[in-house]
Write a structure and sequence with these properties.
The protein is an alpha/beta fold and about 750 residues long. It has helices spanning about 20-30, 35-40, 80-90, 185-190, 205-215, 220-225, 275-285, 285-295, 350-355, 375-395, 475-480, 485-500, 505-515, 520-530, 595-605, 655-660, 665-675, 685-695, 705, 720-735; strands spanning about 100-110, 130-140, 155-160, 165-170, 240, 245-250, 255-265, 305-310, 340-345, 370, 585-590, 610-615, 620-625, 630, 635, 645-650, 680, 715. Strands 1, 2, 3, 4, 5, 6, 7, 8, 9 and 10 form a 10-stranded antiparallel sheet that branches. Strands 15-12-11-16-17-18 form a 6-stranded parallel sheet, with helices on both faces. The chain has a two-stranded antiparallel sheet with strand order 13-14. The longest helix has 18 residues, at about 375-395. Bound molecules: protoporphyrin IX containing FE. Protoporphyrin IX containing FE binds near residues 135, 181, 361 and 385.
């Protein structure tokens, strides 16, 4: 096994989780930082003074165009009207060709005290706090598409370090669909809406995606990730991030080591259920963007710990996969994670376009101490990002846009170009020179100059691929084997769903044929649902990535099938971090509710950092049996249980009578049951829950002991005594923290 001689010492316990209120947080994390101050220099407030034209001339009438007579034609002369309309006509820029839909936030990264033994980068010096801007995204959908589409999530972090910008442009999955960047345009064309009718939006459930990935079997591992719960995160704050490629870190002595980057959220990794995601897309397509925004506004700042897997150069060939192959991960069981710092996002952007839309990440933005490897996907990305940004942002000067501006001084002989902001003075715009006193001069490595790691390279020029890239299935099987039964079922159901939206029978069959190389049970399960008999015989080579003039046998994918390994770290459910903070709890309530329970319930939930919201038949207020009035957050028709993590039904005879007549209230509970969410009720609320579940077809009498149990995540307490309601609330909070009752009884029988 590789490891561990020179790898960094274990991290100090910076990641210990404590509940932090807004006040606590702001004392722990500096609110002010250099990047914030830099951006402030470009920021204006609408209350800065009178309305003016772009030339600074005050405007007296912004309601009427200039006309010949009060009812007459508009005049071309109207310079104010033309200026305003001309600007409006050009307000849109091209959306990103991929990752168009995204949400961003500012924050800081704080280095632990252990990374400098492997990396000389200044921002990894112990305790260094570096401003960051992070953008999360979906890949396939357009800018206005739904947040919760089944898709990979981009996870891009811009570190504004003192040595220049470092961008860690990763995803929430540790591998990718293709091995060589020359296939990226093909892959993206296949997953985007089909070109003849631009259908479907933000979906991989269509012919061209499955046609491509089933012909390019190197995609199989990543396809399983994309069909897993990882592709439908509960929140952007609750997903992991990965650098995907193998990078290098260089220490002060010039020693290079291979590293894999890995972000882990302190709230744990959690996902939605597919049926829930489909419904959220209708009820709140901005679900993730809103969730991130609101959490930061409320002071519940999301945090991720950054870890690296470190592999000594001498261990490069120790694995049964190639470190340069981006369709492979390095199992944590082989190389453990070493935490090296923590990112906290603590400030929403002031302007979406100026910051989140104009930010330009690039994998080639690195600082001394970090370097690339020969991963052929990574190498292609080095070209692609600045190239696309040239057309997306319209000029080679996009590094001058405030969000992209380095904190370290930018001093070079590059000049001019569209929209240049900098006024470079003096006669010397070349180097070497004497007219400018020799400035700017090259900085030697000892002065912090960047020098590429002198990796020896030798070989014939070929368009080819190493044989160590030919195994397309072992890690797909590894991933599948590492999932719990619930997660395996979700993967199978996701593929069934996707393939049932493919029109071409041959594509569906080919996919099932490919799945047989991963797991025969998975292939059969998918096949059975689609009426495809297994085993499927596929005609022709599976791998179409074959150069025209080369012996095709050489390019057959490996027959290395299902070798039974597993990596427990790859399961979400198997690695649950219970967390109640920021969980949304719907409290179903109506006029005449029982006074006793509500205040203590709301307090207990809020104390744990959860967000209870009162949902009543109508908006406005509700009155308790004792005459107390509470403000309602939402009327039943404006929301749905899919927007919440848990449901509580408050007692009180009159209140429950009212709720019982409300179909949306019944649906609320039943959907929460179907989606395995914590449900609790007190007093007459218990009957409401029982009746609702009975209406959905569950046998609430025969099995009530099992159905209404902590294990099943349905907690009822008919008594309203203080002791009973306290222990009910405690059990409810535990159940919320567990995220879902995955083993919930008769989940497939429930009729909603
Ligand atoms: C050869 C393969 C790839 C190519 C050619 C490519 C190309 C691109 C392009 C053109 C963009 C739009 C950038 C912009 O307009 O600012 C983009 C965005 C992005 N890519 Fe890639 N990409 C590739 C692979 C990957 C991989 C493997 C990852 C993850 C490790 C990734 C992560 C991202 C992210 C996170 C963004 C969004 C950045 C943002 O938030 O602005 N890409 N990619």
């Amino acid at each position: 096994m590789p490891q561990k001689k020179d790898s960094p010492a274990p991290a100090p316990n910076h990641s210990a989780k404590t509940k932090v209120s807004k006040a606590d947080k702001s004392s722990a994390i500096p609110e002010e930082n250099e990047k914030k101050a830099q951006l402030a220099g470009f920021t204006t407030q609408p209350d800065d003074g009178s309305l003016t034209s772009n030339q600074g001339v005050k405007i007296s009438d912004d309601q009427n165009t200039l006309k010949a007579g009060r009812r007459g034609p508009s005049l071309l002369e109207d310079h104010l009207f033309r200026e305003k309309l001309m600007h409006f006509d050009h307000e849109r820029i091209p959306e990103r060709v991929v990752h168009a839909r995204g949400s961003g936030a500012h924050g800081v990264f704080e280095a632990y005290d252990n990374a400098q033994s492997i990396c000389k980068a200044d921002f990894l010096k112990p305790g260094t706090v570096t401003p960051v801007f992070t953008r999360f995204s979906t890949v396939a959908g357009f800018r206005g598409s739904s947040d919760v589409a089944r898709d990979v999530r981009g996870f891009a972090v811009k570190f504004y370090t003192q040595e220049g910008i470092f961008d860690l442009v990763g995803n929430n999955m540790p591998v990718f669909f293709i091995q060589d960047g020359i296939k990226f345009p093909d892959f993206i064309h296949a997953v985007k809406p089909e070109p003849h009718n631009e259908i479907p939006q933000a979906q991989s459930a269509h012919d061209t995606f499955w046609d491509f990935v089933s012909l390019s079997t190197e995609a199989t591992h990543m396809v399983l990730w994309a069909m897993s719960d990882r592709a439908i995160p509960r929140s952007l704050r609750m997903m992991e991030g990965f650098g995907v490629h193998t990078f290098r870190m260089i220490d002060k002595k010039g020693t290079s080591r291979f590293v894999k980057f890995h972000w882990r959220p302190t709230l744990g990794t959690h996902s939605l259920i597919w049926d829930e995601a489909l419904k959220i897309s209708g009820k709140d397509p901005d679900f993730h963007r809103r969730d991130l925004w609101e959490a930061i506004e409320s002071g519940a700042y999301p945090e991720w710990e950054l870890s690296v897997q470190v592999i000594e150069e001498k261990d490069e060939f120790k694995f049964d996969f190639d470190l340069l192959d981006p369709t492979k991960l390095v199992p944590e069981e082989l190389v453990p994670l070493t935490p090296i710092g923590k990112m906290t996002l603590n400030r929403n952007p002031a302007n979406f376009f100026a910051e989140t839309e104009q930010v330009a990440f690039c994998i080639s933005h690195i600082v001394p101490g970090i370097d690339f490897t020969d991963d052929p996907l990574l190498q292609a990305r080095l070209f692609s990002y600045p190239d696309t940004q040239l057309s997306r942002l319209g000029s080679p000067n996009f590094h001058e846009i405030p969000i992209n501006k380095s904190l370290a001084p930018v001093v070079n002989n590059q000049r001019d170009g569209h929209m240049r902001q900098t006024i470079n003075t003096g006669a010397a715009s070349y180097e070497p020179n004497t007219v400018g006193g020799g400035c700017p001069f090259q900085a030697g490595v000892k002065m912090g100059g960047f020098a590429t790691y002198p990796q020896p390279v030798e070989g014939p020029k070929v368009r080819d691929r190493a044989e160590s890239f030919f195994d397309h299935f072992s890690q797909a099987t590894l991933f599948y084997n590492s999932q719990t039964e619930v997660e395996k079922k979700h993967i199978m159901q996701a593929i069934q769903f996707e393939l049932s939206h493919c029109n071409t029978p041959a594509i569906r069959e080919r996919v099932v044929g490919v799945l047989e190389h991963v797991d025969k049970g998975l292939a059969k399960g998918v096949g059975d649902a689609l009426g495809i008999k297994t085993p499927v015989k596929i005609d022709g080579p599976l791998n179409q990535l074959v150069p025209a003039d080369i012996a095709k046998e050489k390019y057959q994918p490996s027959k290395n099938i299902g070798h039974g390994k597993s990596s427990p770290a790859l399961s979400i459910i198997g690695n649950l971090i219970p967390a109640v903070e920021t969980r949304k709890v719907a409290v179903l309530i109506a006029d005449g509710y029982a006074d006793e329970t509500v205040d203590p319930l709301l307090k207990a939930l809020t104390d744990k950092g959860a967000i209870p919201q009162l949902i009543a038949p109508l908006g406005g207020t509700v009155k308790s049996a004792g005459g107390k009035e509470l403000a309602v957050d939402f009327g039943l028709n404006s929301v749905g249980s899919v927007l919440f993590d848990a449901v509580y039904v408050v007692g009180g005879k009159k209140a429950v009578d009212t709720l019982s007549k409300q179909a949306p209230a019944v649906l609320f509970v039943n959907e929460a049951y179907k989606h395995c969410k914590a449900i609790a009720a007190s007093g007459e609320g218990c009957d409401f829950v029982k009746n609702a579940l009975a209406k959905a077809g569950l046998d609430v009498k025969g099995e009530s002991a099992d159905l209404f149990s902590a294990k099943n995540g349905v907690l009822l307490s008919a008594a309203e005594s203080k002791k009973d309601s306290t222990s009910l609330t405690e059990d409810f909070i535990d159940a919320i923290g567990n995220h879902r009752a995955w083993d919930r009884l008769h989940i497939d029988d429930i009729a909603v």
